[in-house]
From TrEMBL, chain A:
It is a multi-pass membrane protein. Pfam families: COX3 (PF00510). This is cytochrome-c oxidase. One of its GO terms (cellular component) is plasma membrane. The keyword Protease does not apply. Its EC number is 7.1.1.9.
Automatic annotation (TrEMBL), chain B:
It comes from Pseudomethylobacillus aquaticus. InterPro entries: Cyt_c_oxase-like_su1_dom, Cyt_c_oxase-like_su1_sf, Cyt_C_Oxase_1, Cyt_c_Oxase_su1_BS, Cyt_c_oxase_su1_dom, Cyt_c_oxidase_su1_bac. It catalyses: 4 Fe(II)-[cytochrome c] + O2 + 8 H(+)(in) = 4 Fe(III)-[cytochrome c] + 2 H2O + 4 H(+)(out). This is Cytochrome c oxidase subunit 1. It is a multi-pass membrane protein.
Amino acid sequence: MATQSQGHYFVPNPSLYPFILSAGLLVMAAGFIFSVNESVPGHSAGSWMMLGGLGVILAMIFLWLGKVIAESQGGHYKTWEDKSFRWGMMAFIASEVAFFAAFFGALFYMRVISVPELAGFDPEFTPYKDFLGAWPSAGPGGVVLGTEYTTAQFTPMGAWGIPAINTLILLTSGATVTWAHWGLLKNKRSQLVMGLFLTVVLGLLFIALQAYEYHHAYNELGLTLQAGAYGSTFFMLTGFHGFHVTLGTIMLIVILLRSMKGHFSPEHHFGFEGVAWYWHFVDVVWLGLFVFVYWL
Amino acid sequence: MSYTTTAHHDAHEDHPSGIMRWLTTTNHKDIGTMYLIFALIMFMVGGSMIMLVRAELFQPGMQLVQPEFFNQLIGVHALIMIFMALMPAATGFANWMLPLQIGAPDMALPRLNNWGFWLLPPAAILLTLPYILALFGIGDGAIATGWTFYAPLSVQGGIGVDFAIFAVHLLGISSVMGSINVIVTIFNMRAPGMTLMKMPMFAWGWLITAFLLIATIPVLAGAVTMLLTDRHFGTHFFDAAGGGDPIMFQHLFWFFGHPEVYILLLPVWGFMPQILQTFARKPMYGYKVQVYSLWAIGALSVVVWAHHFFTVGMPVPALLYFMYSTMAISIPLAVLFYCWIATIWRGSMSFETPMLFAVGWIILFGIGGLTGLVLADVAADAQYHHTYFVVAHFHYTLFAGGIMGIMAGVYYWLPKMTGHMYNEKLGKLHFWLTAISFNLTFIPQFFLGLAGMPRRIPDYALQFSEFNMISSIAAFVLGAAQLLFVYNIISCARGGKKATDQVWEGAQGLEWTLPSPPPYHSFTEQPVVK
Amino acid sequence: MVMQWIKKTGMFLVLAFASFAVNAEYAWNFPKPVTPMALDTLHVHNKFMLITMILFVVVLAIMIYSIVNHRKSRNYQAATFTGPRTRPQVLWTLVPFAILLYIDFILMGIPAYHSVVMMEDTKNNADMVIKVNGSQWRWSYEYMDGDAQGIKFVSNLTTPQEQITNEAEKGEHYLLEVDNPLVLPVDKKVRILLTASDVIHNWWVPAFGASRDAIPGFLRETWVKVEEEGTYRGQCKELCGKGHGYMPVVVKAVPQEEFDVWVADQKQQMAANTAGADKEWTKDELMALGKDVYTKNCAVCHQVSGAGLPPAFPALTGSKLVAEPNLDSDGKLLKDSHLDRVLNGKGVMPAWKATLSDSDIAAVVTYERNALGNAVGDVLQPAQVKALR
Ligand code: HEA
Ligand code: HEA
Ligand code: CUA
Ligand SMILES: [Cu+2]
């Protein structure tokens, strides 16, 4: 790797953005806490604080990334800097994988360990006497102690409707980004722009279908966040995934606009690749979701 | 190793002055300094909290605080000491020394680096704000569940839990950003000729730490997020009535929590052999084997987590697996001990303060490690678990292994960082006072635990009185001794005998080829390592 | 100077640690074991302590030798080796690790295996079964089979508040004393089932070597076989909120005959209690019992005066909820009424349905409505509570 001297490394000028960004996070977190604790004085101000913090955060991200793009266009980033970004992006995606692993872990734990265990206790002693430990489950409270717990009965989400379509959409979008990348490598700008445009459209379609699915779950299936083990894992996993797809789509839109402005060259396009990697990562997580949340 | 240094030293330092310098800096040394100062301040804060606890435990009966407040004190003490004293101190060293040691111009992602630091003060504010809010009648104080957040106690808890959850989120982002920076710096910024297997041990320690952080911190973030939704949005992750399980929280927490204890110590295991070799004037023993052992510890650390809750009633095969895998960690650690001792064996030792701390550290951390080995035994752990025996074990590893290790590093590098020598007499006094009062504080706690005193209780039965009294008195001495440390650092920063470039007679490595203090931009041209 | 310090602290450490293994006095070690499990645990512990002691002393001795001799001030010339070079040297370095492997997995590993198996063998040859429930902050016990089946009671801390706040002399069993200890016959294997109603607790008696979590919604088990008569004391070992330090476990181990007498006694009291639930109580009787129940069970949170500790624990004095009626005209329980809150709990407020008897509940509700600065005026009869079950 580092065998010959690589010349001058670009160290950015001092910047106030990170500091303000952190302050924004502080305000948003505090606001959120006030807004979810009804009994606490100051509750009513919570939502406003949260919005204010969010505004600061968005502004800072916008400015910060804008500066990065400007530095990139200004030719400050050469091969050496580029490599740093690649390593950095990989490490970041690895941490995202670990984050999803926690929620998948929770899903497996409940399916394999806690739900069967609750069903398996000696009925003489357990409060949950005739609970069947089958999956999908809202847990014993939803079945036995119907008067004390208000867990609704629900219908689980089938795999072969919208989820299957969404799988196809995401897989296709993975292909379109790659196609766009080929266009960039061959310096065919129209293929690049077209590929990215298609990817963005597919991403938006996915989000729309997902939103429809949630609507359907809440209004027709009785499947809510409160619906025990199944509802909790279903919405947390698909929800965080959907959030990541949304982020990914926004980033895709940004690089689409940049491509249209003529940014990126066949040699230098970390911005493009970072987003593409992220998009593939979101894709792979979805496959895991499709198999373990919807299908099996 | 030999080096040809071509560092040319810029005369101009183009950065804003005053407070803006620190808010906006992208310079690895400035950021490292901020991390270290932050860590020192938080060490004082966390220590002062536990002084109040020790005062309450001085004798049976409730004297100073209410039980609820007592619980808040211990949990916040632990969170502060671990996340805001020990971890930032290690990150501070990484920022200061990694680029110098591997011949890099700076950290690889300087702006991100700045953000990594500036996430910490908001986290500290979030963690401690509930204390202040409670004074104004808002909420009922800080998190009172201990540092482990166990559900359902934390589901039931007040607003302090929410603040702690978000504090952990910010700390997590900060650690991940710091780790990304370290990984990228090590992989991409090494000087020509500095192959991985020529890197200083400190870089290895930190590299593995960074990997562990990236693999486990997000899991903690996920766990506390589930806690948040259980608290406020009606999910049932940790509630049997919905098919969830409180024990699942413990699995998730300790999947992070156990690697965390090695995250805290790996950087120390990195620079400690460097200190030993410097003052023994003899090359490090078994470099390669040490690197492999560090990797082995890193790998094993993520598969042994359940030894923290042997008493929850796991199936026998699970108990046996976690017991034997935990014991297996003693092998690579014993290798490290072997190498450390072999490094000083037949050296030509002198005992300046860093070396005193280093040698004391081997012995005291040895006690922590050996008691850990005993805890790994499932049957005996039923007795030790959640007693003061465990408290003593982890202060031998965290305070002796962690904080005293960091102190060795501070004395070792302070002359390099400030350009002045610290007061050697005061340093030695600090060491002896710390080592002796530390043992007097925590050895009685081993016996308390054996006799059956549970941890996290504000008041205790009469048979525990004497040992608690000894422990408290010694703890006050231990606390007071740290004032010497602070005084020594401040006076060293403000002036004193000029330090030479090499500082220590036996010091080896790139950082000692630069002037003390090093110029603002360390290696604008990378040195070539042969 | 430095040398002497090192020697002294070294000696100190060795001595301090030596007392672990060598000192057989129980004040310096686990309490005297009275069950097979505790005895086994003590043996395992002593053995491990001895092993780690030896490791520590050996390593420390090597270090001290090196520190004394290999110093610059003695003009010792530093060697330059960085690892074993010849084959014998390599083999030599492997010896300590072979020993360590042996220690870990044979010397410590095998006895540990047997202990674990013994510890988890809760069901085989069990003579009786008890169910233990942990709640904030008291234990309750229920006998599940045999003659004693059906006996159940709550076990509360009896240490007076004045002792805790240092206004009175502390008694011998300060913080480790309860009103109703668990009574067990000696030499019988007792299977103990554990669960909890709010947060995780841990049922622990050091002299038994048994320690197991009580987890809400789940069942866990352990066992004891007490081999010596006596009263044994322990406490909750899992942080469970502000009363965690005030949740003792007291177990009285008695000979079988004595146990039988105790069982007969309890049964009689239970019969009296059910009879009591059906009779008409006077307000004074209810108030007297109610005060007793209140101070034992409710005052930890709502305080003796009824002022509570807002915002965590609401005041009962002047509480709107307490002033509302409990039952509708058909005798049905009204939702979110005073009685509903006491029976079923809410959030941190425990549900008392399973722990308190009909008369206790009727009495404490009546008491709260007519004392603590409240004057609602009505009384609740045990029979009315019984009808709701
Ligand atoms: C940095 C911190 C750190 C480190 C390094 C360790 C190291 C180890 N720990 Fe510890 N531990 C904690 C911090 C740490 N621990 C904390 C914070 C807790 C409590 C958390 C809580 O509940 O709040 C805890 C709790 C804890 C428990 C749970 C106890 C309980 O709650 O019931 C267990 C059980 O197995 C355990 C085991 C071990 C083991 C086997 C090691 C091994 O890694 C040790 C290996 C080392 C050796 C075996 C030494 C080898 C040395 C020699 C052979 C020679 C030595 C002699 C001389 C030099 C003189 N630890
Ligand atoms: C890095 C980690 C770290 C460090 C450095 C320490 C440092 C200390 N710890 Fe801590 N501790 C933990 C990690 C740590 N601890 C953890 C993880 C827990 C478990 C919490 C839980 O149960 O959830 C714990 C719990 C814990 C307990 C158990 C509480 C309980 O269970 O009820 C005790 C009791 O003695 C204790 C004592 C001390 C003492 C005396 C120090 C001393 O070393 C501190 C010395 C430092 C200072 C005192 C500050 C500097 C001096 C000044 C500011 C001057 C002012 C001084 C005076 C007024 C005298 N700690
Ligand atoms: Cu119950 Cu602690
Ligand atoms: Cu551990």
